[in-house]
Specification:
Layout (H helix, E strand, L loop, with lengths): L2 H18 L7 H22 L12 H22 L5
Helix pairs in contact: 1-2, 1-3, 2-3
Length: about 90
């Protein structure tokens, strides 16, 4: 997968992470997009580095999607912990 595929995967993973963890987040759409893209890269890196499961070159691989969504969920939770109460 090229960089454009990872960005598209990150956008979709961010949307899925937001669907799984609904609520008001600081940053809006741009923030969620950045979290999704960064989470996709983070999930892929963690999967390849520590879980001994290199990411497939195929865009439709289930493990690739799971790593991207998992990375996005981790970043979304961390983002809410760090910046979630800034709008009070």
């Amino acid at each position: 997968m090229g960089i454009i595929s990872w960005i598209i995967l990150g956008l979709l993973a961010g949307a899925i992470a937001k669907f799984l963890l609904p609520g008001r987040d600081p940053g809006g759409f741009i923030g969620m997009t950045a979290i999704g893209i960064t989470g996709a890269f983070l999930g892929g890196w963690i999967s390849a580095r520590w879980l001994d499961h290199p990411i497939s070159k195929d865009f439709y691989d289930g493990a690739t999607w799971a790593a991207a969504i998992g990375g996005s969920l981790v970043l979304l939770v961390a983002y809410r912990i760090l910046f979630g109460h800034s709008r009070n």
